[in-house]
Every structure is written in structure tokens, then in C-alpha cells.
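Quick start: what a row looks like.
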Amino acid sequence: MSLGPYASFIVLSYAVSALVVAILIVWVALDYRRQQAKLRALDAAGVSRRSKRNAAEAS
């Protein structure tokens, strides 16, 4: 399979795209961990969600 004279551009484009996707995946995973830690801290402090409180009041 020959990519012709633009082979380097094509390969570089795919490499850059793969790198960007990998960076986004890592960023989302780290943000998820941070948000989970914040939620655990709020839960430990006794803070509850308003939606949970409203559901209990409606029953």
C-alpha cells in the first residue's frame, strides 16, 4: 500500500489525532477521579443532594 508523496503528512495527521484523543481520555479520567473525591468529601461532611431531599419530602 503506497500513500504517495503525502505519506508523511497522512501518518503525522493520524499520530497527532491519536495523541489528542489519548490526552482527552487521560484528562477525563483524572477529572472523574477529582470529582469522585470531591463528592466523597461532601458526603463525609454530611452534605446531601437537593434532589434526594425533595424526593424524601414528596413521599
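That is the whole record. The two ends are 67 Å apart (CA to CA). The first helix runs from residue 7 to 44.
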